[in-house]
Amino acid sequence: MKIKPILLAAFVLSAFAVSGVALVVITQTVMADRIAENQRQAMERKLAAILPAGESDNDPLTDTIEVSARELLGADTTRVYRVRKGEAPVAVILEPVVPDGYAGPIRLLVSVLTDGSVGGVRVLSHHETPGLGDKIEEAKSDWVYDFAGTSLGDPPLERWAVKRDGGDFDQFTGATITPRAIVKAVKNTLIYVEQQGERLYEQPATQTATRRTTTDQEAS
Fold first, then answer.
1. Tell me: the pLDDT tens digits for 27-40?
2. For 166-212, how does the pLDDT look when each residue is reduced to its tens digit (9 = 90+)?
3. Where are the domains of the chain?
4. How far is CA 99 from CA 72, 104, 178, in A?
5. Residue environment code for 106-121, b if the CB has 16+ CB neighbours within 10 A, otherwise e
6. In the chain, what are the helix, strand and coil shares in percent, each to the nearest 5?
7. Under a CB-based contact definition with an 8 Å cutoff, are residues 115 and 96 in contact?
8. pTM (2 decimals)?
C-alpha cells in the first residue's frame, strides 16, 4: 500500500476543510457587523421619526435603561431611550409590548415628550392579519399617526378607547381587537411615564441598544 499518496490526499482534504471553515467564520463576522450596523441605522430613523426635529443632541441608542413594569408595559423588562438637548430632557421613547393583539404580541415604539404628550407611535413587529389588523403599519395606513399630540388629558382618560367602545380613536373595518389593544398600550405607557417622572432621566444608562429592531414583521 502506498502510504504517501494517502497522506498527501488526507492533508489536502484537511487543508480544504480548514480553509472552508475559516472562510465561513470570516464571512459570518463581516456580515454580523454589517447587519448590526444596518439595524442600528434603522432604529435611529425610527426614533427620529417620532421626535421633534432638531430638539435633541444626544444619542438615545447609547442613553438607555431597562425598566420592569409588566402590568403597564406588557413585558418583564422594557427598554427606555432617553432623549436630551444639552442637559435638558426632551423625551423618553419606550418599547412596550401589546400582549393582547389579535394574532399575538405587538411591539411598539412610543415617544413621550416632557409635557406628557405623545411624540409619535410606531410598530416594530406584529403578526396581525394581512388586510385587516396590519393597518397598524405605516405602509398600510396612517392610523398610527393619530396618536401624535395626544395625552392623558387630550382626549380625557375615559375616552382613551376606540369609537366602538365609546372612545375617540378609530377602529378598522372588520378588525377592532388590534386597534383596541394598541390604544390601551399607548395609554398605559403614558400612565407609566407620568408615574415615573424625572426618575426615567436620572437613572444611569445601562447598555447600548444593539439587539434587533424587529423580530418577525417590520413596519417601515
1. 676 667 777 777 78
2. 999 999 988 899 999 999 999 999 999 999 999 999 999 985 444 44
3. 49-202
4. 11, 7, 11
5. bbbbbbbbbeebbbbb
6. 40, 20, 35
7. no
8. 0.79
